[in-house]
Amino acid sequence: MEKKVAVIGAGNGGTAIAAYLASLGVEVNLCDLFPQYLEGIIAADGIDLTLDGKTTHQRLNKVTGDVAEAISGVHLIMVVTPSFTHRMIAERCYSALTDGQVVVLNPGRTGGALDFLNTIRSKGCHADITIAETQTLIYSCRKTGPASVEIFGVKKEVALGAFPANRTSQVLELLNPYYPQFTAAKNCMETSLSNIGALFHPTPVLLNIGRIENDKNGYRYYWDGITPSVAVLIKAIDHERMAVAEAYGVEILSAEEWLRQSYDTYGDNLYELLQHNNAYADIKAPTTIEARYVTEDVPMSLVPISELARIAGVPTPNIDAVIQLTSSIYQRDFRAEGRCAKNLGIEGMSKAQVTHFFETGER
Amino acid sequence: MEKKVAVIGAGNGGTAIAAYLASLGVEVNLCDLFPQYLEGIIAADGIDLTLDGKTTHQRLNKVTGDVAEAISGVHLIMVVTPSFTHRMIAERCYSALTDGQVVVLNPGRTGGALDFLNTIRSKGCHADITIAETQTLIYSCRKTGPASVEIFGVKKEVALGAFPANRTSQVLELLNPYYPQFTAAKNCMETSLSNIGALFHPTPVLLNIGRIENDKNGYRYYWDGITPSVAVLIKAIDHERMAVAEAYGVEILSAEEWLRQSYDTYGDNLYELLQHNNAYADIKAPTTIEARYVTEDVPMSLVPISELARIAGVPTPNIDAVIQLTSSIYQRDFRAEGRCAKNLGIEGMSKAQVTHFFETGER
Q: Is the peptide bond before B286 cis (omega within 30 degrees of 0)?
């Protein structure tokens, strides 16, 4: 078992994972790119972890704003941050990465492993590292203060895919002692394309953007915002995502199947399943358009799906239209700055080459 | 002066024009595709016209549901209907059209003259007719009952373009005795691309569609619905429309210029100009998505702009994205059913051929 683990990210998820691993006796190096998130933990000399109604104080091995320092001499690196920081983290640590290290992106959104790999490779790092993506965060959890976190729920099963895919079992051997919930995905394409945020985040914001800017009370994001017509477009986008998965030979759940499996809900269509999902009842819409639902999920989720589709010759007109309109509204080039083929390091590859690359890591 | 005029359409605009022409001593044949609109006028033996605070009863020559009957022996035909009926009207009257007749579409939206012409030609009608488009309806008016109409305002100047353009002065000679407000546009491309509905209708509905379906009170369409982000996208679409006009060598007003010229408003940008336009204060949003703002303005306004752009090699990514997303949401192929190049009869033409066609009517 790994006795030292680096956790990058001191938000809700990272703080929970760091404290939980520490509670199992692991020496945890906790790092955040924004050192103000660490100040409370340094002052408290650790994290108060609340789990199953019991609160314990967990000391850490090291708390640092320096990624390279955090990962030095550590075999397993857990990255628990919004996906738009993956590239920044890679840029901060590429020269410190060494052969055999394993980076697990929790979660990777879509194409996270490739984005991370392409960044360190383009900086000249040739260390033989393995990068894995989880499909979603293992916990439902929330920081309750600057040095305290509560875990409300632990998911029963979370798929994990390594890059290259032929190393997935090695990564699970490292993780399963702490997290038996992680199971093998076919590859990173499966975890990447299982990203439900790509469906439930950008489109409902786009189709309610006038309301978000005008109604400062914050309507109910799912129940009021995903009306029948919004659900129709999400479903059209879901069909495109499923077609991309099929083209690359991976099996993923449709949004409807995922809702049925993940929640105690019912209904004949996507709209009804969302309306009957009580877990979504109280989720409020953002009160400004500067919400990660777009600024993260368009470049880090929709863009890579669209680019993988293009390589496979699968049309994604609705995904492309959402990328286009949000780019115009936000006055940003989400495709160029996001996980486009160039930034994933797969520009010019054929579908067969991409598949081979995911499987073996060889170009 | 024309002593006989056919008016097709017994809605607000058509009823007003029919009554006004009758008040000038013209023999008016009034027709509507939906005969129930005519019943009240038949029963009342005419129309009560209120203008400048005075109400007069105007008798008509003929009131009929048969377009062919209405236009028989009439030189000037005024079509005052939603643009999605233009094709239906052409289909009902193609065999009755005769050399020298003039059809004026009030207004044509975008590509109305070509759509009408292509329909009668594809039915085998080779009569030498002239079709003109006006940029907008001449009146602000409202039917106040089944056989009464009030004219609130008359626009000072309305551009009119004939197809072919070299006949515009002949059409104005017919119309100006009744309506000196009509002035010569360069051609139908100018009237078509001056269609402000293409800007102010589909996009604000799309970006508020969740709210339209959820908020049954009906928010204020312009003031609450065109927020800064919505205005940003309208402006991007306006840039595309202006680029198409430039490619075809016609001068049109930008949305901002048009607002400044048409209304007593002010502001540094499109958002402010709309917010400061008191004429828009009380206009309510539709309470269902089955609104002409999309079902008419996407196929009849955005589609022809996009298709003319494609022929000219002008990119219209935002217009195309709005067409794509509304088509998916409404589960209709707005491009195929709308004024695409095929339905305009210009498929396969080059930009130079289209320009020549608008000018001379010759392919």
A: no
